[in-house]
Amino acid sequence: MSEFSGKVALVTGGAKGQGRNHALALAEAGARVGIVDVCRQFDSCAPMGTEEDLRTTEAMLKERGAECFAMVGDTRSSSDMRRFVDTARERWGSVDVFVANAGVAAFGPVAEMTDDMWDDVVGANLTGVATSIRAVVPVMKEQRSGRIIATSSSVAREGGPNNANYAASKWGVIGFVKSLAIELAPLGVTVNALAPMSVSTDMCHNDKTYRLFRPDLADPTEDDVRDTFASLNPMRVPWLELEDVTAGLHYLASESGRYVTGASLDIAGGWNAYHSA
Ligand SMILES: NC(=O)c1ccc[n+]([C@@H]2O[C@H](COP(=O)([O-])OP(=O)(O)OC[C@H]3O[C@@H](n4cnc5c(N)ncnc54)[C@H](O)[C@@H]3O)[C@@H](O)[C@H]2O)c1
Questions:
Q1: 39, 116, 199: which to mutate for ligand 1, most atoms within 8 A of CB?
Q2: Is 274 noted as a catalytic residue in this protein?
Q3: Nearest Cα to 248, choosing from 169, 154, 160?
């Protein structure tokens, strides 16, 4: 029997990128999986998922034989998130693993930051994480079991140029996770953050980000930015592959992680060793 057989896992931001990979891995391990994605581009942000992406993930879940559903919804909306959680509960009776993965990025110096760049990033990355998790907390409290995993980032616990909105939102995720972990620990519900460094998804690989990393070039390519990305961590890895992050998720969601709560799991080639917090 697979490790998550009979378990119910929900993943936000499941249309593509890390959310898709987490959903597929949980399905391959036997879970029933629900995914949600806003499927709409926020103008200020790096390329986001589409409804076609969402349906592709759903088809990939079905190919793996998983019981699943996919819905369009915004993690910032409590009614969308209640609908997401209620759908799982009505179909399958419980929610065992909740992955608050959805997020966006819009990088730039504070002096040039528009209201949208602030609102979109803090809205999706912090309010969206909190709103989606708040929808599942009553279910897990009643069950007296559950695993909540939110995606933060290596850039949460440090400052950096062009990063104020993103770092503030991701630091906020760690504060939220730690506080909720203490509230839910007596019930056996764990709450943790994943803190990956750059991951090989559209959020990392896009023209705007490449230009920030190589302002000396008019039209930098992946090869042009590789060394600059790699210089951020002592292992000199430019970016993680999806499976590197999903391995961390798997640990936090699995039986092995049952006594891990309030943690922020760095998957970062040692980038985290530079942090003082
Ligand atoms: N890629 C990186 O370098 C990197 C590094 C560290 C952390 N992260 C974080 O990992 C998570 C996943 O990002 P990714 O790399 O897979 O990027 P991605 O852009 O490929 O996927 C993110 C998905 O989240 C969805 N989304 C965004 N806001 C939403 C909202 N309000 N409601 C519902 N869905 C929403 C998007 O449409 C998209 O499909 C994010 O929280 C991101 O901040 C990314």
A1: 199
A2: no
A3: 154
